[in-house]
Amino acid sequence: MTEVLTDAPPERDPSPADSNEPFLVVENLTVQFPTYDGLVQAVTDLSYTVQLGETLGIVGESGSGKSVSSMAVLGLHDVKRSRLTGSIRIGGKEIIGASNSTMKRIRGNDVTMIFQDPLTAMHPFYTVGAQIVEAYRLHHDVSKSVAKRRAVEMLERVGIPQPDRRVSEYPHQFSGGMRQRAMIAMSLVNNPKLLIADEPTTALDVTVQAQILDLMQDLQKEFGSAVVMITHDLGVIAEIADNVLVMYAGRCVEKGTTKQILTHPEMPYTWGLLGSIADVSSDVSKPLIPIPGTPPSLLNPPDGCSFHPRCRHTDKVEGRRCFTELPELVQQPQQTHPTRCHIEDPDTIYETEVKEEIM
Amino acid sequence: MSEQTSTSPKSNGTAPLLEVRDLVKHFPVKSSGVIRRTIGQVQAVDGVTFNVYKGRSLGLVGESGCGKTSVGRVITRLYDPTSGSMKFEGNEIATLSSKAMLPYRREIQLIFQDPYSSLNPRHTVGSIISTPMQVHKTVPKNKMVARVQELLEVVGLNPEHYNRYPSEFSGGQRQRIGIARSLALNPKLIVADEPVSALDVSIQAQVVNLLQDLQKEFDIAFLFIAHDLAIVRHFCPEIAVMYLGKIVEIGDRDQIYLTPHHPYTQALLSAAPDVKQAAVGGRRERIRLEGDVPSPINPPSGCRFRTRCWKAQDICAAEEPPLLEVGGRQVACHFAEPLQVIAPEALTFMAPSDGVENETVSTSGSTAL
Fold first, then answer.
1. What CATH number does the domain containing B277 carry?
2. Structural domain boundaries, residue B320
């Protein structure tokens, strides 16, 4: 029963020595959707890398391009309706422009995705077992009974009680947390090296969220896979990510290690995000500091820095550059991590004005 | 009964705006077939007792399916209670006919979770906000537009936009429209059912601050229903924790969050992610709850939490623990004892609770801030 599980990790085990580049490399990715209203610039010039065994958290509001960029990694965008440029390499293989048959081999095998809402992501007419079996048999030439044994084993691994009975039940017979576990089982059945989790816990209660996050961390340790965690919840990021990428209006505006971003953010949008969340241990006498306004339309994003209409610190940059000139994602000599902002000395502003408000 | 009434120190002496006693709401489960016999009851709310005071907020937290939304719906009489009593300013409203209920509907309003489905897409913002005032005939027709514009301004929207449709607004703005509608009749109590959970983080803070400002300005009491422990703590000086149709712990914010006594409250708090805590390197020891919430059709005997509780003994299955005063709050557990879940360093600035609370919550008659 368990021999498939136990010998699986070595066969897939990452050997970082022989790979010269990180497992996932996204370079200058731009995703645009032509529509009747104009060109939606969903993702612009996004670059990041993820090593095996590492978790990257992508944070941003709805419409910031975090899901669109990750769907591009799986090759899920319709080539007729979207324009993709740049480069995405998974284990050295180029994804952009890859043929459908190549993508089919990668998708569900090397790279899998956990979706936000397991009830809509799973097929209501097929049993949970049948859906896991399908995913397994697509990439493994095995009989149905072997695949079913594997499905039961995976359900057991993700903590579903009575897996041999549950395997022949339908998604609606599972509770929300169970369904998410089943989704995780399905996505891990082929021992993927890269797992993309798109808001995997947003639809769940806190206690179940904690269970799922623990499970994902355990499984990542066991299989040594790379994880991209897309979420708007900084609490989830704080729990599980090693590195964080903050997205705003389709662009990366700040990236660094989780500790750097959470304890020493240097971009006004990240300051705003941290200031606008309540915490179970924060001071209740302080009002929350919302970011004024709403995210910009990606049909015609604002000139200059896309955050400038909502930014409180534009007066600290000389010559109205925030309004006219798009800042580059660069790391200033005095900075610990790169940001996309014109402010010369974010450190001082953070220490003197912002820290007091958000910590 | 009287020892069950939740009395927080700051509300002593004033009569509660809303007194809820042993409120029960069961939904019948019908069999399929021609004769639809009742074959069971979903015990959504099963004996809930609490008070809401004028101009103050009571938070109701719990996991999905614990009955918190049902409580809100029963209080607004969108559902009829199965049994129990609800007194609004001393008058019993649980059994009133819909006609006799009408004057009270004006006083108790609802804010819904989803700003997309709770506004009619074919009505203009003006007609959405003015409908309650037309129904209750509180504003003459010729003053209606002025009143709608005033309300739009109060919630921070452009008063010129009263002729627009909901689809022209963003999620946060729509929620403001919903809030304007609930304010239209000058209610004394607003039941806010997950008012911010459908919004983006940066917008959530805008709406929470708006609700707090409105509370100060109009002296409105809130029953704030949410699953987000941090938002509830920020908004409500008093908090009730629900599990499977029952209140398991109710008390002041700091009592609940600093020294939770009920194992479920402890587990819930330990599971809440804490950005600022994690940022300084600390990570809370998580209490892992096994399994899922049991079905409310057939809840466990005795204490309903016992199937997932690590303290459960024989007595928990045999006897239902009553809601008793322990350590300054009420808790329903045979083995109630404090357990600090949130790390001490995070608590340093929370200790002087009275000073903090008097500032954030302006009770009636207190000095304006």
1. 3.40.50.300
2. 2-89+188-360
Q: Compare CB distances from B63 to A62, A207, A281 and report the shortest one's residue.
A: A207
Using the structure block, give the residue that is written with the tokens 């370079």.
Answer: A27
Would you place residue B346 in the very low, low, confident or very high pLDDT band (cuts 50, 70, 90)?
A: low
Share of chain B above pLDDT 70, in %: 87
B201 part of contact set with chain A, CB < 8 Å: yes
Mean per-residue pLDDT for A168-183?
A: 88
Two tokens, residue A105: 């081999």
DSSP code of B290?
P
Domain count, chain B: 1
Q: A175 and B230: CB-CB below 8 Å? A: no
Say if CB B219 and CB B364 are below 8 A apart.
Answer: yes
CB-CB contact of B287 with A295 (8 Å) = no
Which H or E run includes B202? Answer: helix B201-218
**Cα–Cα distance between A155 and A136 in angstroms, integer?**
13
SS3 label, residue A332: coil
pLDDT in tens, A192-233: 999 999 988 887 788 888 888 888 898 899 889 999 999 988
Q: Which residues of B touch A277 (CB under 8 A)?
A: 201, 204-205, 230, 275
- Please report the pLDDT score of residue B283 as a whole number: 63
Distance CA A130, CA A120 (A): 16
Set of chain B residues whose Cβ sits within 8 Å of the Cβ of A307: none
Q: Note which residues in 21-50 of chain A have CB less than 8 A from chain B.
A: none
- Condensed to tens digits (0 to 9), the pLDDT of residues B89-113 reads 999 999 999 899 999 999 999 999 8
- Of the candidates A179, A341, A169, the one whose C-alpha atom is nearest the C-alpha of residue A251 is A341
Q: Residue type for B321, please?
A: P
Count other C-beta atoms under 10 Å from residue B86's C-beta. 21
Read out DSSP for B206-238?
HHHHHHHHHHHHHT-EEEEEES-HHHHHHH-SE
